[in-house]
Structures are given as structure tokens and as C-alpha cells.
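Async update (no meeting this week)

Hi team, since we skipped the sync, here's where things stand on the single-chain job. The sequence we agreed to prioritize is pasted below, unchanged from the tracker. I ran it this morning and attached the output directly underneath so nobody has to dig for it. Comments welcome in thread, and please keep replies under the output.
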Amino acid sequence: MILKNPIIPSDTAETIALRALAYVVGRDTALKQLIAQTGVAPSSLHERASDPALLAGVLDFLFSNETFLVDFCEIEGFSPDNLDHVRQALSGAPTDW
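Output:
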């Protein structure tokens, strides 16, 4: 998916972030690193899947690991720059980037 417009609706951003969460959960190494880096309990990932703060954290996790970031973006068909726009569109994202 190529996102041509940098203004992304929050519901689209949440959908993409949910796909990022599914990506991380589906890869044992990525999931272990997310848990170690954030301290989030595996059981709470499902419970908090609609929480914009958790979804933003998942995207931040991807940004912290170039291998996972590039792999996810290739699978989804968009650039890391587009993913940055997704992150900014999530509810509660910092506005002073």
C-alpha cells in the first residue's frame, strides 16, 4: 500500500498500526524484543489492541529496529516515511516532531 497523501485519517492509521502489531506478534524474535523493550505483558497485547498508546508504541518499536521496520514496510508495500505519517496520525501522537 503506497500512501501518497501524508494526511492520514486516524482510523486508517489505527488499521495500519494493528497490522504492525500482528506483524510483531507473528514473529517470535520481534515479540520477545518488544516485551523486553517495553515491559508490556503478552496477555495485555490482545486486551489493549485498540489502545492508541499501545499501537503508537508498536510503531515506535518498529522504528527502533531497522530490520523489522524494513521487513514490515516491504510486506505492507510502503516506505518507512509513510509509516512515520501513520505514527503521527495516531491519537495522542506528539505534535512537535
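Quick observations from my side:
The chain has one domain: 10-89.
The two ends are 24 Å apart (CA to CA).
Reply here if anything looks off.
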